[in-house]
Amino acid sequence: MVDTASYHQQQAYLDMSSATANGIHHTQINGHTSQQDQIPFNIDQLAADFDLAGQDECNSSARMFERTRIQVLADERGYVQKKTFTKWVNSHLTRVGCRINDLYTDLGDGRNLIRLLEILSGERLPKATRGKMRIHCLENVDKAIMFLQEQHVHLENIGAHDIVDGNSSLILGLIWTIILRFQIQDITIEECVSTETKSAKDALLLWCQMKTADYSSVNVRNFTTSWKDGLAFCALIHKHRPDLIPQFKTLTKENANHNLQLAFDLCEKRLGISKLLDPEDVNVDYVDEKSIITYIVTLYHYFSKMKNDSVQGRRLAKVIGSALDSEKMANDYERLVSDLLAWIEQTIVTLSDRQFPNSLPRVHEKLVDFNRYRVMDKPARFAEKGNLEVLLFTLQSKERANQQIPFQPREGKMISDVNRAWENLERAEHDRELALREEIIRQERLEQLATKFNRKAGLREKWLTDSEKLVASDQFGTDLASVEAAFKKQEAIQTDIAAFEERLQNIMAIANELQTEDYHDYATIEARKKNVEMHWEYLISLVTKRRQCLELAYNLQRVFQEMQYIFEWISDLKWRLKSDDIEKYILSADDLLQRHSLIEADIYVIDERLKRAITDADEYLNPDVNIDGYRPATSEEIEMRSHNLQKAYEELIELSRKRRDLLEQAKVVSKFYSDVGDAEFWIDEKQQTMTSPDMGHDVNTTDSLVAKHKLIENDMSA
User: Which residues does the UniProt record annotate as the domain Calponin-homology (CH) (predicted)?
Assistant: First the structure.
């Protein structure tokens, strides 16, 4: 219950004395009575009490001064309150585009009062009556008073006519009552130590003390003197908005007007709080408590609203954050699913690739990459897959908890789709491993074949090189035996080559298999294969050439052998023809002639063979008779051999002729000697007969002897 009749007297009393109160003033709001201020009922009673108490001690001049002083303080306080309350009312009316200039007169029509209460309460009051007559004004003010009564605000001694008539004390009391009801009443702060609930004023004071507790230069004990230096105002601002007064520590108590001006200007310009007070209203000896409370309440509501806005903002942010989190989780799910499915699809494409590198080390690198994928890439993606399931479950659970429709992934982005894709990945992975193993086995076999080829090719190249050196020589010897030995050696080489050809075909087959299997280093294999083939062909050409040379040399040596045989034959015949047995065996000249005829027959044969031999030898004198420039003998040697043989033959002919002549002569001599011998034998025989003494012993014998004698005579005549 508010007693507004003695409003100024109460304010003067509060500032004048700290003595014990003579009466208790209560404000009843919402059915609760709280002790607000200790105030006297009226200024006249107060003066009378002082007169009675000190009439023996104070003279009349003192009492007059005291009463004058109280009246002056009340007038000053009323002025400050009027200015403060006017600004406070305007700070709310500006919301609806209204404003008052004089608190005492501009509320008289009730319209602004109704608007003020609608703004403060947030409720709709009965529509103000139009018209400017007193009756209209009284009706509008009554509507405002009735609304306050409905809000359990008991206004004692205030009627509509007091407001219409501009009763300053009651108007100030009414505004203060409205401030108490709509600005201060709901301020309650529980102390940290006890559960005692403070009154609105004490709660406001405690709030100020709590907010300024960290500031050593500020000590808030009341709503009067504690605010004179302006530091308390600056501390409240700095506590909630330190950015507005970054240099708070530089503020001093001695510069009160600056501090107050700074605080009020910041509140007005930066916080949008109406400038209810001026520095000269606060930096005075007797500070008006209600003006200070009104301003501080405005600060309290602003900062509380800022805090509530922050709390509501946090709550809204929490709701929005939850929705955003859900949306983010859904987006994350979609993104992660898309990323995972894209990775699975790309990985399946990669794993399905069978175009392996064409070398064992690089295939092993592929196997290492595959194992790295299984050890590093796949587990991470498998964890992502599990996280996706957890994320989806968390998202759906969260939305169910928030009574929202659970998120359902789109077709193709469901967990089942991921599981199917993962199964496909597992199959592709298994097939990839098998393919890699098979390729490694194939590459290892190719490497083994290549190694085998290189080893065998090395052996074949060495054999071919040695064989080339062996058959490259065209020095077959200077006689038929050497050439025949070389010929036999050639036959052996050709036999080895024929046997070697099969082994050569084996490595050719290996090379062809490496080519068919697309061996990575087939270029080297092919180069070596061609090298072996080149050596083989070269060897074959050498062998062929050598055989031809051997045949040429062999044929020539056969000719030389024939010529040598003929030469030796001629030499033998010459030796026989040179024998001196003609004289020794002159009596056997006929035998010698017969033998000589045999020799001449041999000479005839020699002549035929000689001609053939020389003709055959002369063929080798032809420049065209050579094999790649190879000639089995020089022309000089052939010509010399032919010449020597021809010369020997001619000597043989000469010797044969001479010997025949000698033999003919010997034959004549031999016949002579034979005839002489026969004559001598006949003579001796006939002489013996003629000298025989036997003349016959009878006629027959004598006739016989005569007949023999006649025969002898005939023989002698012959």
Answer: 79-183, 198-304
